[in-house]
Each structure stands twice: as C-alpha cells, then as structure tokens.
Amino acid sequence: MYNRILVPLDGSPLAEAILPHATELARKFDATLVLLRVTMSRGEAIRETVSPDPITAAPLSIDVANQLVEAQDQAAEQYLSGIREGLASQKIACETAVIEGNAAMVLTEAVRERNIDLIAMATHARSGLGRLIFGSVADSVIHDVNVPVLLVHAKG
Question: The pTM is what?
Fold first, then answer.
C-alpha cells in the first residue's frame, strides 16, 4: 500500500514524535522512509544578515549568509545521518534529503519528485490565533498534496 513515506523533521523532539509511527508503518508495508529536513534558503539568510543600513549592507553580508546556509545544511545532513543509522540498525530502509526553502512548498514538491505515497509528520496542532499568527505547514501540505497525510499531535 505504501512504498515511500515522507517524514519531515526539523531537528526538534516534537517533530521526532512521528518516528515510532513512521517506523512501524515502514515495517508493516516494507516501505522506505524518506527523511527530509527543510533549511533556510540563501535568500532568507541574506535577509537575516543584511544590515538595514545601506552603508553597512556590503557583500560581507552575502558571505556571512552563505556560511550560515552551508553550516545549517551540514548540521542538517549530520542530524539526518544519525537518525538514518538508528533506523538502519532496525532494518528500516531509509533515504535522507536536505532541501533549502519554504517548508510547505518543499514538502509539496518532494511528494511529486520522490514518488511519495504517504506523508507522516508531527504537528503542534495549533488552532485559532496561534495558527493565524504562525501558520501551519501541516495545513498547507494537506491542501496541496494528493497523498494521504498522517498527522500526530506532538505534545510539548
């Protein structure tokens, strides 16, 4: 039924709450878990590091942004590698990917590009004002993909 299960992780224990569920599904269906970490894009990093003062907004800021993105991507790769090794010791097939960009858009595109059959993710289950202020990656993904989405309310 499910061959490839996308598991978005952000490095937090809340996001990792989905792992026991995804692992059990992978065992049951002999599926591959695709662990995905979405990181800040270079554009976002530049906006974060460029000074609002045009005089000090020099190319140095772009260099700093590039270093920031490279460091976060490397940390994300190491993080996913550790999880992949733990899953491999349980005989779970696993792939990893680190992609820069907007989380909801990256997840939606990953479903198409990686032949995903199911998305399994944890959510903070915000509602009302919290959802309005912070948005909801899960909500966006549910509306933008044509595959089932398993959501687990992560308590935290």
Answer: 0.83
